[in-house]
Amino acid sequence: MSLPARQLTIEPLTREAFAPFGDVIDKDVSEYFMINNGSTRRYHRMADVDVTEGGGEPIISIFQATPLEYPLPVKMMERHPLGSQAFIPLLGNPYLILVAPKGDTPDPSQLRAFFSNGRQGVNYHKGVWHHPVLTLTDKDQFLIVDRAGPGNNCDEVFFSDDVQLELAIDALTQQGDQRLVSAAS
Q1: 93 contact partners, CB below 8 Å, separation of at least 6
Q2: pTM, to two decimals
Q3: Hey, CA dihedral for 95, 101, 104, 110, is it positive or negative?
Q4: How many angstroms separate the CA atoms of 159 and 178, rounded?
Q5: pLDDT confidence of residue 136
């Protein structure tokens, strides 16, 4: 007999809550200084790129993602043991983040889910377990800063059938964000 799936609670994305996993890239809560003769605000050093281990170098890419079906059975997680990985939304659409602390394998009881308002990016620290991109909008786009170079920089772990976890967006759509209501239907 299979146990019902444990539904993960989706938390707001804040610097404090996300700190064990990486950095929140959010100009709305960042300090700045003026440059270019006072015409430009520079939100400086919002995250550190950590990719040089084992001869790596930083690269910039764009991911275009399609939403998965929700409620989502959580069956796998991945990590990048040789470098950080930043996701910066380009189109301003809300999206989800699913993470677990560093370790040899992700502990399903330690998974945490976060909601980005679409103006917040994240920078996963090296070795932090995370789910591949969880967009809520079709053809959503993210600027990615991560590592290229020698070595295996992507570990994937698939949970056994005994692990019953589910990520649902019902609570978010009940809060009335119209972009989520259309993404969920």
Answers
A1: 118, 135, 136, 137, 140, 179
A2: 0.91
A3: negative
A4: 33
A5: 97
SS3 28: helix
CA 30, 167, 85, 22 torsion-angle sign: positive
* 11 has pLDDT over 90: yes
Give the length of the chain: 185
The one-letter amino acid code at 59 reads: I
CA 106 centroid distance within chain: 15
pLDDT tens, position by position, 26-68: 999 999 999 999 999 999 999 999 999 999 999 999 999 999 9
Cβ proximity of 180 and 173 under 8 Å? yes
Q: Where are the alpha helices (DSSP H) in the chain?
A: 15-18, 170-174, 178-184
